[in-house]
Design a protein that fits this description.
The chain is of the alpha+beta class and about 140 residues long. It contains 6 helices and 4 strands; from the N terminus they run ααβαβαββαα. The chain has a 4-stranded mixed beta sheet. α2 runs parallel beside α3 and α3 packs across α4.
Length: about 140
């Protein structure tokens, strides 16, 4: 398996190999644990609270590793529709959706008003002519 987008993000060859090895392990685990998409048999929905996505101070947890966006995109790609909580600013969400590629539609709400954490909700779904996607589930979020 090749991940050409990693080349620009991780210059060190051994770190890039580690990231690719981890992506392949993740992919194998997802193959074993997540049902295959089958428009005739199932609709795979997911919701994921990705802690502090693009928040400047991640409560002391620091910056994400560059390959983190690939791990997140790999998980998201297994579902027909995904809602993501804690999208603070759009930079990291846009990195993830860029990795998913042009075959995916996505949306993000405005930040919440008032007191609180000022999060957005993000949604992503693959473009297709089947199932829920025909009705444009993602457009229901907008």
């Amino acid at each position: 398996m090749e991940y050409p987008l990693l080349d620009g993000l991780i210059a060190n060859a051994s770190e890039r190999k580690r990231a690719v090895d981890n992506l392949e392990l993740l992919r194998a685990q997802l193959d074993a644990e997540v049902p295959e998409k089958d428009v005739e048999e199932n609709l795979l929905l997911a919701t994921w609270n990705i802690r502090d996505l693009n928040k400047k101070n991640r409560r002391g947890f620091g910056e994400r590793l560059p390959e983190t966006y690939f791990y997140i995109a790999e998980v998201l790609s297994r579902f027909d529709f995904v809602a993501v909580q804690e999208v603070n600013e759009l930079d990291e969400w846009e990195k993830i959706t860029a990795i998913l590629g042009p075959a995916w539609d996505w949306v993000a709400t405005d930040v919440t008003d008032g007191e609180g954490s000022y999060h957005r909700l993000g949604g992503a779904e693959p473009r297709s002519d089947a199932g829920c996607r025909q009705a444009g589930c993602i457009m229901q979020l907008a």
